[in-house]
User: What shape does this take?
Amino acid sequence: MESKDTAVERGSGNVFVDLGFPDADAHLVKAELVSRIDDIVRDRGITQTEAARLLGLSQPDVSRLLRGDFREYSLERLFRLLTALGRDIDIVVRQPRSAEGGKLRIAAAGPA
Assistant: This one.
C-alpha cells in the first residue's frame, strides 16, 4: 500500500459555512432541530407513520424530514413539530459570547 500525503483542513464547526451555503447558521440550527426530532422518534420507538400522526404530517414527509430534506421547513414549523412531540422551546436573546458577534445556537437540555 502506498502512502500519500493528504492535506487536512480544519472545519469551522458548521458544515454549511464550510460548503458556502447562504444563511449557514440557520441551516445548522434547522439540522440540529431535525436531529432532536429524530432522537425523540427513535427514543420512543415509534414508526414514521406514528410520528406522522403526532406531527400532523404524512409518512413520506416525515421520511424526507428525517433524511435531511428540511429546506422548506421554517424554524417556527420545526419548533411546532417539537412541541407536538411534547418538548418545551425556550428562546433566549443575550449579549454575544465573543467579539465575533451574534450566533444562532441550539442547546438541548436532558435526554431526547
